[in-house]
Amino acid sequence: MNTQAPATGRSHITAGLASMMGTTIEWYDFFLYGTAAALIFNKIFFPAFDPVVGTMAAFATYSVGFFARPLGGIVFGHFGDKVGRKSMLLITLLLMGVPTILIGLIPSYDQIGYWAAVLLVAMRFLQGIAVGGEWGGAVLMAVEHAPAGQKGFFGSLPQVGVAPGLILSSLAMGAVAKLPEADMLSWGWRIPFLASVLLLAVGWFIRVKVAESPDFKGMEDTGRKVKLPVAEVLKKYPRETLTVIGARLAEVTWFYTTVTFALAYATGTLGIARSVMLDATIWGATAALVSMPLAGWLGDRIGHKWVFMLGTLGIVACAPLFFHFLHLRETFWVNAALVVSIGLVYALLYGPEGSLFSGQFPPEVRYTGISLAVQVSGAIGGGLAPIVAIWLLSKGNGDPRYVVWYLSLLGAVACFSAWKMHGDAKFNTLPVVPRAPKASHP
User: Fold this and answer.
1) Please, what is the angle between helix 162-177 and helix 274-302, to 10°?
2) 3-state secondary structure of 65
3) Domains of the chain, residue spans
4) Domain 11-211+222-419 class in CATH
5) pLDDT of residue 8
6) What is the pLDDT of residue 221?
7) What does the buried/exposed string (b/e) look like for 271-300 if buried means 16 or more CB atoms within 10 Å of the residue's CB?
8) Quick one: which of 361, 18, 62 has its CA closest to 161?
9) Which positions of the chain have pLDDT values less than 50?
10) What is the pLDDT at residue 218?
11) Fewer CB within 10 Å of terminal CB in the chain, N or C?
């Protein structure tokens, strides 16, 4: 039985929408870098390398953001469980937006040599710290504000923010990709990064209006805070941590292989136009705008772990189909590949994650628990996905069969991990204890 006090007024709607819109802005920044790494950064920051090596170097800087995520998850998870969810979300928004703007101002390799790459890595590291702390807070603000029986739907709203973030970043890079090559490489690519200042202002305005999580207030009132949340998670909840890592590893590897790696593979190896791939990504993300909340809603009806497990079976079934569609080199089938990848398989995995993963930990260590597990798997899966895929592709002499096997294996591991999870939230949320009313004076 859920002991949480019912949401008052429309606070759960405000929290859900604010989490979604804030996540949209942060993921715009993060995806923008991934798209630029696939299409542009090898020419701007690593022109002295062979094209293939330059692309791998660009993806290596891209990976830095993923390897910084666990640190961000631990730091912001600690203070999110000790100080509050809301304040951490405001800090991570700034920590994401400012480095994105600064990336748009970094001089090229031709101007300052290898210092350009050093600055790029530093900004990417800060982005990773921010995303590592942001995801857990956004999900918890939505889930912990949500009424009983609707946590899956509202927990999917921060996840839905990924789709418009991907759409916006693809539209922005698609627009500058239409410029003449010389203009795009000299100044055009910088515009989408500098435009982040507008999104940063909007995100701050939205998030500052959200009330603190009722579960966190309940922790304060009942004295349930722990001294060192990360130690508590590792000591008391190793099974929950490992099952979340195993489940998320497939989801994040699937996404960054079929979106980021596939962008470089399709344009560089298969000769598919950049505009076709970027448009297909937009179609896939648009489908996910509808399918992700549907997956969260379905999880409220049949159980979030079962919806997630359906997505893991989708990886196994659709991995060979995805690359087959790309190899047809026709716009319709390229669009179909990305719609299936993002709008179907990814939505079934990512939509129910917020409620499913947060239900594995009690409120007093929930921010730390889900942030640590999710970001460790993100560093391994997302950070290495493009590099591992390129290496496996070379081992197959250009045939992606080893990439397909790799994705299928991770899908099987994720299915088993999800099966071992608590089906419904094992840890009841804490009640919000009403404070004593002030004495009235005659």
Assistant:
1) 180
2) helix
3) 11-211+222-419
4) mainly alpha
5) 47
6) 66
7) ebebebbbbbbbbbbbbbbebbbbbbbbbb
8) 18
9) 1-8, 428-442
10) 72
11) C
